[in-house]
Amino acid sequence: MRTRQLGPFTVSAIGLGGMPLSMNSSGLPPTDRAIATVHAALDAGVTFIDTADIYAPSWDAMGHNERLIAEALNAWSGDKSTIVVATKGGITRGEGETWGRDGTEAYLRAALEKSLDALQRDTIDLYQWHRPDRSLVYAQVIETFAKFKAEGLISAIGISNANVEEIAVALDALGDGGLASVQNRFSPQFRSSADELELCTQEGIAFLPWSPLGGIGNDAEKLNADYPGIAAVARAHAVSPQQVTLAWELALAPNVIPIPGASRPQSITDSVKAAELDLSDAEVQQISDSWGPQIPYAD
């Protein structure tokens, strides 16, 4: 498995997004299959897993995915010290599936403590602000994350769903090397984060595309139909369009670390092979020029 830098960590070029194991419109996988999916990723060389406190089948099961990841890691026979686990906080989820955002120190500290407990860890490797709370000053919330790091509760700081201005604020607040990653939506269907990717590349910050294959329901047939450039390159290499899509993202910049979700071992095993798929400059451009249906930006 090829590796890339994520703040203080060296991780696999392809990570695993845990969300489909706990939030899935097609139905949740059985626990044994969910754990087998995580194990398949680890056995294939994945050393980075991304989760969040809100990844759960219902509002009263917050932390479901974090607990599942912890269970899978505990049951894995490999070297657990090599695995970097990231989680996120800052989105609220209440009775009746009411959603909101809370970036206050009190809320984030309580959320972080719950995540530490769910993941069975003394320190979170990478703790990310899930979505901005626009009722608060962005820099002040970033300073809360810096406080958590100074207290030894987290090893690295990330932000998610951030625009260029917010990334700049975080960089200014944290100083050189203080911001490890930015996790934004990015895929052939959603390219609105191109400016954020460019800034992260310039600053040496890991860029973590979420839903890098377009999200749940975007299967091979849909990718082939909507993006002829991806289909053509996949045929040329005799590989899946998912592999080509992830390889294209990896080729865009050396700081990109896609985190495809999976609910079956076969899915993540296929995705991981993208790390070894080398595309030519012409193929990368062919895919970049292949504009199919686009998902509009929504904060």
From TrEMBL:
Please name the Pfam families in this protein's record.
Aldo_ket_red
Please provide one cellular component term from the Gene Ontology annotations of this protein.
Answer: cytoplasm
Q: Could you tell me the keywords of this UniProt record?
A: Oxidoreductase
Residue span(s) of domain NADP-dependent oxidoreductase: 14-289
Q: Does the keyword Endoplasmic reticulum apply?
A: no
Output the InterPro entries linked to this UniProt entry: AKR, Aldo-Keto_reductase, NAD(P)_OxRdtase_dom_sf, NADP_OxRdtase_dom
Q: Which GO terms describe its molecular function?
A: oxidoreductase activity
Stretches of the chain forming a coiled coil according to its record: none
This chain belongs to the protein called Aryl-alcohol dehydrogenase-like predicted oxidoreductase
This protein's species is Naumannella halotolerans
